[in-house]
Amino acid sequence: MATELTWLGHSAFRIDTPGGKRVYVDPFLNGNPTCPESELEPERCDLIALTHGHDDHLGDTVAIAQKFGCPVIAQVELRGWLSTMGLSQDPTQAVNKGGTVDVEGVKLTLTHGNHSSSLFRDGVFQYAGESCGFVLEVEDGFKIYVAGDTNVFGDMSLIGRIYAPDVAIVPIGDHYTMGPGEAAVALELLGVSRCVPCHYGTFPLLHGTPERLRELAPAGVEILAPEPGETLTF
Ligand SMILES: [Zn+2]
Question: Is the pLDDT of residue 1 over 90?
């Protein structure tokens, strides 16, 4: 069995693990202009992993988690807020940077990210912790680094050194996150050989392109740029 990674547009991904688990990352499906129609209603979900609380990442989390009763792994403050929205109050699902959660053989470690995190509700911004990335290790040891929304930062080299991810999912859209120039340096610091760019093309402001990243990326790094709805098999 392999790991299947399906881009659902923006920063939303569906990961089907070798052990048969279905993981949703930042499931912004309804309202996401690039999410394929066929992906708007998940058939099943065993785990949701969130990078931060902004609505273009939180997306359909509450509805999916309530429908399937699946765990939602997020930083403590965001996960605490979710428990006020009807999700279970489960400390095993509320993690912080450096911490690892093992959900039946799928391991998730929260990592640093450079961004903000809040929820705009009832006319005010509510604190949702910090924006994070994470390393997801599936049952056979394959590791996916999800950078979340961030600029490049030097400690990405620590993520590379400690976790040695097999593929890195990094934002390239610019404006709210890094663009291709910083993303190219991120790939160098991470020392990865494969990259899946995200957080681009959703809205006109997110103008970074995989083509530009290919021009700037370190030699030998493969830039895999699926279309929304397309599946990569590792
Ligand atoms: Zn975002």
Answer: no
Quick one: tokens of 213?
């990243």
- CA 69 to ligand 1 center in whole angstroms: 25
* SS3 call for 55: helix
Which domains does the chain possess? 4-227 (3.60.15.10)
Q: How far is the CA of 1 from the centre of ligand 1 (A)?
A: 31
Q: How far is CA 128 from the centre of its chain?
A: 16
Phi, psi of 184 (to 5 degrees): -60, -40
Residue at token pair 């039946």: 104
Are the C-beta atoms of 131 and 114 separated by less than 8 Å? yes
User: What is the whole-number distance in angstroms between the Cα of residue 106 and the centre of ligand 1?
Assistant: 24
Write out pLDDT tens, residues 160-174.
Answer: 999 999 999 999 999
